[in-house]
């Protein structure tokens, strides 16, 4: 198995997820260990000197002018974990917690944080043995780092708090006994190094990026199926058009739609029809989906930078130089997370509009409400209600958290990012987006059926076949939520995108995606 070396390798969102899912091993690099030990030596030297350095021999926040005696430095570091463990609300998902551990170790292994190698190896042990600390989701304002969630994350290394082992939540004391470990005693700056940083925001961004990318890929496929069902025009996807407005995202989407429709007999069947142009939700798929892809690319670039950054405070440069700054401030992620949340919501908005078009039954051989015998049957009318409700909910969630700031720490921390809320909302919006796309998927598949025996291109035919293996064509009302849930699994699991990509690969078709 491939191994990633903390403190040395270049971490990417995809690599972080692969480590979290146990697809890649992880260790602290040899050079990184040397750098960590040097930084620790510098920190201990400062702690034993007469110099006053924030976080090493002073209090925290507004107590930065309170000098702490050498005898109480260790107690200070233990107390910071206790005092900052004020999280509330639901427990953070296991995958997010593991990403927090991974991203924190990588940042601390760069050798500017003054933490001991022993503490880092303890955290790596947690990663290797799937020991998942219990972390409440709420309580961070995303300024001095994600103080509350990170405090909960690392309580177990000093024998406090709870952890999940093999799916069961137990006390950290019991966990240490099971694994024949001893809780650690933290030294100078170690508690502060653990809770300073953006790893809560960052982990939600990493997961959200992966999920949103899957939605973007799926939206192109589902949108193309809707276009086929509505016998829409392929002219708006011509390369010549998009060269005149050469945004990377729109060019990519236009190319993908062209490829998905390649060889379609449905397209050929209406080549000489008298319809001039389609509604925007069909005609402007490249521009709308493309804008959201541009936002994804921007966030991906910024998250990659953050993954390989040092975000605690103070930074230890050498034995004489420590810098107290603001690398822990979450604004650098909070703003792009808010912006990408808008991009995700917009994919849902345009998807809902296409679903509505599929139900109108005005032209294109589709029955009204996608069912022949309506009246006694409501057809696919009500699933669109669900889509509309979710799209509306996402609009409310799009209020940018990063424009808000409530002073904390008696005014010492007088501007905060609220980036932790941005990260959680981004993933909630994606939860809703996956369901909106699921509704469009079942409607597009139903519309597809009415054009048989005409066939679409190879890729869309295989995607339609995948759907029909699990969801039947219907001409009578039934419990549609069951269909929506099945379609949701096809979207959220990546199965629909995987089917499209595999079909393209087998048939030597260049479908294209953001990573290629």
**Secondary-structure element order, N to C:** EHEHHEHHEEHEEHHHHHHHHEEHHHHHH
Largest sheet: 3 strands, antiparallel
For the record, the CATH architecture of the largest domain stands as Up-down Bundle
Task: Find the structural class using helix and strand composition.
Answer: mainly alpha
Count up the helices. 20
Contiguous runs where pLDDT drops below 50 for at least 5 residues: none
Number of extended strands? 9
Strand order of the largest sheet: 4-6-7
Overall morphology? elongated
Span of the ends, CA to CA: 24 Å
Helix content class: 40-55%
Give the total of domains: 2
CATH topology of the largest domain: Fumarase C, Chain A, domain 2
CATH homolog superfamily of the largest domain: Fumarase/aspartase (Central domain)
Q: What's the CATH first level of the largest domain?
A: Mainly Alpha
- Arithmetic mean of pLDDT: 93
Rounded Rg: 26 Å
How much of the sequence lies in strands comes to 5-15%
Please give a quick description of this structure.
With 516 residues, this protein is mainly alpha-helical. The chain is built from 20 helices and 9 strands.
List keywords for this structure.
516 residues; mainly alpha; Fumarase C, Chain B, domain 1; Fumarase C, Chain A, domain 2; two-stranded parallel sheet; 9 strands; elongated
Can you describe what's shown?
With 516 residues, this protein is mainly α. It folds into 2 domains: 3-197, Fumarase/aspartase (N-terminal domain) (Fumarase C, Chain B, domain 1, Orthogonal Bundle), CATH 1.10.275; 204-310 and 328-506, Fumarase/aspartase (Central domain) (Fumarase C, Chain A, domain 2, Up-down Bundle). 54% of the residues lie in helices and 6% in strands. It has 20 helices and 9 strands. Strands 4-6-7 form a 3-stranded antiparallel sheet. Strands 1-2 form a two-stranded parallel ribbon. Helix 9 packs parallel to helix 17 (419-449), helix 14 packs antiparallel against helix 15 and helix 15 (331-360) packs parallel to helix 17 (419-449). The longest helix is centred in the middle third of the chain and has 31 residues, at 199-229. The chain is elongated and about 85 Å long. The mean pLDDT is 93.
């Amino acid at each position: 198995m491939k191994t990633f070396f903390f403190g040395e390798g270049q971490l990417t969102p995809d690599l972080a997820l692969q480590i979290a899912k146990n697809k890649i091993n992880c260790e602290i690099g040899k050079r990184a260990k040397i750098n960590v030990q040097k930084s620790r030596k510098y920190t201990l030297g400062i702690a034993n000197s007469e110099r006053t350095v924030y976080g090493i021999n002073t209090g925290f926040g507004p107590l930065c002018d309170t000098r702490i005696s050498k005898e109480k430095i260790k107690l200070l570091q233990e107390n910071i974990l206790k005092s900052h463990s004020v999280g509330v609300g639901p427990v953070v998902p296991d995958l997010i917690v593991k990403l927090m551990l991974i991203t924190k170790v990588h940042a601390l292994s760069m050798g500017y944080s003054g933490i001991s190698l022993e503490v880092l190896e303890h955290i790596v042990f947690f990663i290797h043995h799937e020991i998942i600390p219990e972390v409440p989701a709420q309580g961070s304002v995303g300024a001095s780092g994600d103080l509350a969630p990170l405090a909960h994350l690392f309580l177990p290394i000093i024998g406090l708090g709870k952890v999940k082992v093999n799916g069961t939540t137990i006390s950290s004391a019991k966990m240490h006994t099971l694994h024949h470990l001893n809780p650690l005693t933290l030294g100078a700056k170690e508690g502060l190094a653990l809770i300073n940083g953006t790893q809560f925001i960052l982990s939600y961004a990493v997961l959200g990026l992966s999920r949103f990318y899957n939605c973007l890929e799926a939206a192109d496929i589902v949108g193309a199926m809707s276009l086929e069902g509505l016998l829409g025009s392929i002219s708006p996807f011509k390369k010549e058009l998009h060269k005149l407005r050469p945004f990377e995202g729109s060019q990519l989407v236009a190319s993908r739609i062209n490829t998905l429709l390649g060889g379609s007999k449905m397209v050929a069947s209406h080549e000489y029809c008298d319809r001039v142009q389609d509604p925007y939700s069909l005609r402007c798929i490249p521009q709308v989906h493309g804008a959201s892809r541009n936002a994804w690319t921007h966030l991906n670039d910024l998250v990659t930078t953050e993954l390989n950054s040092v975000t605690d405070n103070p930074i230890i440069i050498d034995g004489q130089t420590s810098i107290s700054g603001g690398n822990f401030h979450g604004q650098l992620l909070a703003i792009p997370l808010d912006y990408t949340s808008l991009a995700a919501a917009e994919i849902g908005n345009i998807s809902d509009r296409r679903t509505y078009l599929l139900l109108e039954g005005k032209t294109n051989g589709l029955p009204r409400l996608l069912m022949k015998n309506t009246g006694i049957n409501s057809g696919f009318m009500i699933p669109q209600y669900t889509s509309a409700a979710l799209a509306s909910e996402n609009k409310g969630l799009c209020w940018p958290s990063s424009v808000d700031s409530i002073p904390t720490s008696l005014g010492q921390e007088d501007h905060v990012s609220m980036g932790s809320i941005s990260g959680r909302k981004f993933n909630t919006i994606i939860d809703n987006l996956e369901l909106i796309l699921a509704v469009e998927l079942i409607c597009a598949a139903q519309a597809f059926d009415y054009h048989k025996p005409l066939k679409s291109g190879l890729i869309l035919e295989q995607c339609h076949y995948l759907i029909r293996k699990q969801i039947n064509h219907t001409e009578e009302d039934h419990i549609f939520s069951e269909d929506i849930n099945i379609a949701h699994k096809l979207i959220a699991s990546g199965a629909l995108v995987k089917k499209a990509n595999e079909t393209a690969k087998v048939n030597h078709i260049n479908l294209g995606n953001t990573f290629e």
